[in-house]
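Sharing a chain and its predicted structure for anyone who wants a worked example. Both blocks are below, sequence first, tokens second.
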Amino acid sequence: MNDKEISRYYKQTLLPLIGADGQELLGKSTVVIAGCGALGTSLANTMVRSGVGNVVIIDRDYIDYDNLPRQILFDEEDIRRGLPKSVAAAEKLRLVNSSVNIVPVVADLTSSNIEELFSGADLILDGTDNFETRFLINEACDKMKIPWVYAGVVSTYGMIYATIPGETPCLNCFINNIPAPGSFPTCATTGVLNTAVSMVTSIEATEGLKILMGRKSAISEKLIYVDVWHNITKNFVIKKSEESLCRICDEHKYELLKGETGVKAVSLCGHNSVQVTPASLIGVPFEDLALRLKKSGEVKFNNYMMKFTIPGYEFTIFPDGRTIIKGAVEESEGKSLYAEYIGY
């Protein structure tokens, strides 16, 4: 480290848990942050301020006013300028730490680009909002032998789990399959408390820093659950099945990476609509889904389909999870709306 860096990180290096050697390792590291929403902005902020040498921020979305209560790197001027999330985040963070190489990537993370975008990374941090992308990350990280930290938050609670390929159980070991559409709450239908985001990302970022500095004995081997409103913290032991092999970390079968499965989106010519088909055509419980969606818009359903309307869009949801979103033009827009309101 040069004199300027020694001065900047002095209080971090005073910590025996970090020290000068740990700070040197951070400065030589590359972190990829997948998603730049509530989780991703907080993670990027921490990584850059901590002195991680290279920070890649991937996000497909733009900024809206309902992002501002939670997504700490954005402001109203970013919205007026029409900036993509990753670009706006990079602009802010370059003012914080000009010595860090920050690379914004405006893209949807898919099977066709994930290996290229993850190439050279020492760590992946989960800032995504859907399980399909997390399962795709899990496959890519297992194949490329890159540690990653899973995190998710909704309402007042969240979970964090650090995965080191070849050493720990993977995401698939405890969730096993991509959850059926509508089976998990989303922020758009349930809401989310900004302090819950702060708590979850603080733990996620800390686990990531431990990995980058090689402090493996300090890394939690458990799934961490926190609920900031009810003051609950729990740790759950994740074990590999004794009855069967994991198809990812044991058998190394990468169906999502090969594009064999996953959410499919296609623009419907002449209809100003996008059809989204989930990874697994599993029955969607209309009654449960309606309870969540009615908080965000108008909902009507029968045995054959559900209509969900919000300003600018009309969702027609079928019992198998297939959905036509009227008002969506781009396939990426359709997938984003599906993830936000229905979840996958």
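Comments welcome. The domain at 3-237 is CATH 3.40.50.720 (Rossmann fold).
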